[in-house]
Amino acid sequence: MRCKIAFYDFGSTAIMHRHLIDMARSEGAPLSFCSIEPNPYYRTLMREVLDPADILDIFSALPRRQINADPSILASYQGGFIEDLAALKRTWRWRRGKWWFDHGIAIFQLYKQFLARRQATHLFMPTIETPEQKIAVAAARELGLGIMVPTDMRNVGGGYFACDCVETPPLYAEATAETRAEAKQFLRDFRENPAPARRLPELIPGDRDSEMIERYLPPLWKRMLRFALSSIERPDLFEPVFIRLSIMRNFAWIREPIRGQRGRRNAALYDIGDVADLPKRFIYYPLHFTPEASINTPAPFYVDQLRVIDALRLAMPNGCVLVVKEHPACLPLRPTSFLRKLRRLPGVIVAKVTMPSIELANRAALTATVTGTPALEAFLLGRPAMLLGPAIPSWLIGRHPPANDVAAAIAGAIDNPPSDEFIVERLAQFLSVRYPFAYGSAHEPSEPVLRRGNMRRMWEALKGHLERERQAKERMSTAAAALRAIG
């Protein structure tokens, strides 16, 4: 089977993609590659290994002057175009809606034409965080390409290749006797000692697999020069807030005192600080880190956390209160006025950030999130859980309600906690697609991704995924042909 993988090189993910290309070529694998470069920072890295025709450089290809877009181009668009545009992060929110509409259509055309021209068979998409990334997936789906989104398996550990923007496992997800036994053991272990929300590979000092591979990280002065040159190259794509973000990212000694002061103020804003003070009957809602990919991409309607809280508190049964707890990573980032406002809402109690989430889930009548891991943890504990948006926890739990039916969904979830049999079966399906690799941004502390062993496992996982996907499609094609023959 001929495969041509189009890498979407968002942020620093071009570094991992470059290593995958190097490994494929050193092994003589029957794969070819092209890449979409949404920003110019790592395009020279790909130019070293790809023909110029196999690189879509958005900074060069995107028209500099916007024209009125033709909406008829979206006639066969896969998904909701406006919903995809809604996956905005704070950086771009000042742009006019018309600018985004025209920009979205322009990049949709660029992506679709490039993928068709280069005859790509698959789109390899990193964590989907932006409207442009969702639009790229829609273009690939319209062309019939396979979608591969390396996705962290949260508490379960490892990674898999999702086939869409909302973390859906691939076609070959299927429970077996082996994965059922593994699921039962995982469940026993988790209930005795709950696993953390992200489990990275252990690094063994002196082990060859723990050695760092090429980081492709320029020195600071080169990164600053690169930023300045890209701003000059495309001033129409420049945002003033980029300067602040760049300083905060590269000069932690400026950032940390500011965040630390805000974090201390926010940590002091709570109504209850001890598990013993929890009300008898409550719904637990852990705040999301926002704006962030985990909520912007699959559920943009709920990016506003107050909208989520209102949806839950206005729909919960009489006699319930809503216990809200801040996301620990968001404590130094969220405006202090937000938590003060929460504490003034009837039916809402703010829990101290240090209260253990697992204990709250065990005591709650329901754990509700938009797409968050706490709902997965509650599910694994056998406790009622509900999500308002689509993501891997909602795939496992098997439900998330429409926005106009939250009250019925809350009542149904409380009255029907998951059975252990159901949990094991869903978990066994999930484990059947697991591979032992970690995928994320390069240059994280300790560099868990750019280790020799992790990159090798990621390459082996990619090959295994392509083969299993091929086999699953062949089985489906054979079954469809048999049905046609019977008909």
Q: Can you walk through the features of this model?
A:
The chain folds into three domains: 258 residues, no CATH class; 46 residues, no CATH class; 162 residues, 3-Layer(aba) Sandwich (Rossmann fold), CATH 3.40.50.2000. By secondary structure, the chain is of the alpha/beta class. The mean pLDDT is 88. The longest helix is centred in the C-terminal third of the chain and has 35 residues. The chain is globular and about 65 Å long. The strands form two sheets. Strands 3-2-1-4-5-6 form a six-stranded mixed β-sheet, sandwiched between helices. Strands 9-8-7-10-11 form a five-stranded parallel β-sheet, with helices on both faces.
Keyword list:
single chain; 487 residues; alpha/beta; Rossmann fold; 3 domains; six-stranded mixed sheet; five-stranded parallel sheet; 44% helix; 10% strand; globular
Task: Give the helices and strands, then pairings.
Blueprint: E1 3-8, H1 13-27, E2 31-37, H2 43-47, E3 55-57, H3 58-61, H4 81-85, H5 97-117, E4 122-124, H6 131-142, E5 146-152, E6 159-162, H7 177-192, H8 220-233, H9 241-250, H10 252-267, E7 282-286, H11 293-296, H12 305-313, E8 321-325, H13 336-342, E9 348-351, H14 357-363, E10 366-369, H15 373-380, E11 385-387, H16 392-397, H17 406-415, H18 420-431, H19 452-486
Parallel strand pairs: 1-2, 1-4, 2-3, 4-5, 7-8, 7-10, 8-9, 10-11
Antiparallel strand pairs: 5-6
Helix pairs in contact: 1-19, 5-6, 7-18, 14-15
